[in-house]
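Our consortium's second objective concerns turning raw sequence data into structural hypotheses that experimental partners can test. To show how far this objective has progressed, the report includes one record in full. It was chosen at random from the queue rather than selected for favorable results. The single chain below, 176 residues long, was entered without modification.
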Amino acid sequence: MEGVELGWLAGILDGEGSVGFVKSKVHPYVGNDGVIIEKTFDVFPYVNVSNTSLELLNKFRDLCIKLLTEMISGNIKVAKISCVLSENKRHRNAYRFTLNRPEHIKIFLIKVLPHLTAKKNDAVYLLNFLDIKKEYYLKRYNFYKQWQEAKRTGILQGRKTSRNKVNYSCKKKSLS
């Protein structure tokens, strides 16, 4: 894959995407001796791009498939593009493409990482998370908690205010 295509993928991810974690439902965590240690959840990584242009997301998906087929032999199955219906009639419907297989996410992020700007810190954090084996549940859980705290305090964005709160430049406008 050419550097221009990788740069385009990174630009779309920076501007229209998100990189992060989703947590599963609460379930019991059983230790090696078969004793339930605590009820908790597991954490799964994702790369997500949303936009109102279906054409843009189709191109993003096609380039992702091209990138993955260059790196992995065999049939590549990626998530379909889903439609997110707007509840507000003034807004257009949006479309979402998600990479959620850890091996796909890892390949994708390694290739686009040099071209990322805004999402670079999140991508590095996610790649470090993917290096932790799934068997090390507690380590993965603690890693997720650290990421959550870093996002909350604004460390990952580098936009920390004097009160340790994230300074968001884009605030939602009320429709009243």
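The partners drew two points from this record. The mean pLDDT is 79. The two ends are 48 Å apart (CA to CA). Both points have been shared with the crystallography group to help prioritize constructs.
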